[in-house]
Amino acid sequence: VLTDSQLETPEASDDAAWLRKGLEYYDDTGLTDAERHYLDGDAPSVSEWSGGEDWEQWLTEAMEKLPEPGVEVDDHKGTPIGEGESLGLVAAEMVMNKDQVSKLPEEFQSGLFQACPAAGCPKWPVGLRISHTNAGVDLTRFALKVGTEDGEIDLTFTETLKSFPIANKEQLKAFAFSVKFGKIAALLKYPKELGALTLNAVKDTAAAKDASEKYAAVSKDYYSLTPYLIGGHGAGQRPGAMKYRLVPTSAREPFPDKGEIEEQGFKKTMRDQAAKHMAAASHSFSFEIQVATQASKQPLNDANAEWDEKTAPWVKMGTVTIPKQDFTQPVSVANVVG
After folding, report:
1. Is 49 helix (H, G, I), strand (E, B) or coil?
2. Which of 125, 171, 181, 211 could hold 185 in an S-S bridge, CB 3.0 to 4.6 Å?
3. pLDDT tens-digit profile of 294-315?
4. How far is CA 170 from CA 141, 174, 185, in A?
5. What distance in Å separates the CA atoms of residue 194 and residue 177, rounded to the nearest whole number?
6. How many whole angstroms separate alpha carbon 292 and alpha carbon 232?
7. Which residues contact 170 (CB under 8 A, 6 or more apart)?
């Protein structure tokens, strides 16, 4: 049975109405207690989960074993924690759109989405790192450190993929076990969980491969993959959930020639091309959010679920711009700094 509010579906272009519907999410009868505790900010930390302290330690140990970064390499040598070699480290800026921020319900106007003064939203300085990862297919990632008046806010994005392969706590447990004891031991102990995780990864990367090889690093769509809190944790603030993404607004640059990648390797080719593009022109992205409206359509505790966009359309909140900047040539991991 649909409620009156669910019957009153906003027009696709009515940003304010969709954002207001995000206030209904917390009271959705399909939301689990665990999900509601997450929104309230009082969910137990990993160390309080059954076996959670062990999982934390296993992942920490794996990171401590990574090689010390040097001037020639800063990747993770293909460990399960991720590779992460730098393709670029550049200055950027982020500015919210005053009119769009004002469309958010007051309960959601905090953090990045604080109400802008009459003169307009401030321009925040951003440190932006472009890096590599491999999840069965080579992908690029963005990491943004945004310097707001209230302190630094970190945002992370992965290209093309809209969801994360590790879907839930059980699969995370199997993954952490595999990091400590190896994939064979994990498969014997957690065959169902590790099998589901593997299928998720295969499905996601197979769907992403063609799209990931269409555009250059400065021209890809980048997604948060997992949900984040919007609003909440304050007097009178009602919590909601969102995902976020970056969509290029500049002309799309093509993916490198595959022959060049075969000759030089993915990371070097993408690094050379990214530096070339950012030295030639500025590049801008639309910063957009997807605010959850229905528990069945936008779940919190299934990170592998792609959120339905008909009941939670993407809404532009601001712009991220990478200005034109110079690089020492030839670029390498050690000097690919704008």
Report:
1. coil
2. 181
3. 999 999 999 999 999 999 999 9
4. 26, 6, 16
5. 10
6. 14
7. 190, 193
